[in-house]
Amino acid sequence: MKINQTVFGGFGGIVILMLLVAITASWSQKKLIDSAEEVTFVYKTKANLNALEKALVDAETGQRGFLYTNDISFLDPYNNSKIQPNNTLSSLKEDLNKDPDQIKIITEIGNLAQQKMQELDETILLKKAGKEKEVRDLVLSGEGKIIMDEIRIRVGEMIRIQEANLVIKQEESTRIYILAQFTSWGSTLLVIIFGSVISWMVARVIMRTIEQAAASISGSARELAATVEEQERIANAQASSINQTTTTMDELNISANQAAEQAETSAQAARHVGHLVMRLSEKSMEIGKMNNMVTELANQTNMLALNAAVEAVRAGEQGRGFNVVAGEIRRLADQSKKSADNIGMLVSDIRLLTATGANNGNEIMRIDNIVTAANNIVLSSQQISLTAKQQAIAIQQVLEAMNAINESAQQTATGISQTKTSIQMLTQAAEHLKSLGLG
């Protein structure tokens, strides 16, 4: 369950319970007020009944005083009580209009009170008229006493009813008061218990969530710290390697520049050798031509020799043909001698030209290979020179990249150190949060 759900649910339950307590308290208070009003009503009714009885007694007292003394001043209680019984009876009827039995008794009391007042009025009038005997006979007849006793009986009955009602109302009021007290204290205790349980549950859920979050943060922080330490170690090692690589690249740059210079020197020497080899190739081609001529002359000489042999066989008159053949042979021989001389001169030149470049310059079959090799050397030297220059440029770019990487690695190491410090602070905060949760 989520924290907000637990909090809202728990305190929602407390609010509902408090509302129930408030409703119960309000109901109990209303019942107490109603009971108090009913008790007050009972006391009021008793007071009115007592007031009615007192008014009749006061009226009778004033009547007796007047009859005994013939002093009109003794009629003041009588005069003051003449109106009160009617008002009191009206109030009682209004208050007890929901109870037919008591209304009936009140009506009877009212009739008796009216009869009593009439009896009192009659005796007073007879006294005022000087009719003492009639007054005495009326008083001794006991009519007024009988009426007054009936009134007292009815009033006493009404008071007993009201006292019974008062006992009932007091008992009900006591029960309501006890219920109200029980409800108030019980609901308060229940709110405390329920609130404590809910608070404990809410605190438990919150603390468990905090502990889990703190443990997760702490674990993540430890793992992150280990990772950062490893990254810091790698970054430092990388920075060291980059520094070493930068030093090596600096040395390689120097070596590449030296190689480029050496390649340029080799290219120049190779071009010189190529030029010499080209001259040798030209001479060799002339030698090939001379050799071809010598070969051709040799073949023709052989053919002529063969013809001479044939002619020798024929001898005789036809011998003159040998002179022609011999002359041709001499001519060819001269040409062969000239060619041989030229070949000798060419061979001498070739020996002089190839003395520094080849040990076997006399071998004509290797001249083409020497020319091709010389050309390849020139091309390779040129390629080496170009490559060395490009390599020097590339090494310079690598050096610049290495410097940038080195700077980035140092910044990374600095950032990792700052991150490590932040992680340590995060770990401390997580541990503090965890200790708060456990508390």
UniProtKB/TrEMBL annotation:
Alphabetical GO biological process terms: chemotaxis; signal transduction
Organism domain of life: Bacteria
Molecular function GO labels: transmembrane signaling receptor activity
Keywords: Chemotaxis, Membrane, Transducer, Transmembrane, Transmembrane helix
PROSITE patterns given in the database record: CHEMOTAXIS_TRANSDUC_2
Entries under PANTHER family matching the protein: METHYL-ACCEPTING CHEMOTAXIS PROTEIN 3 (PTHR43531:SF11), PROTEIN ICFG (PTHR43531)
UniProt name for this protein: Chemotaxis protein
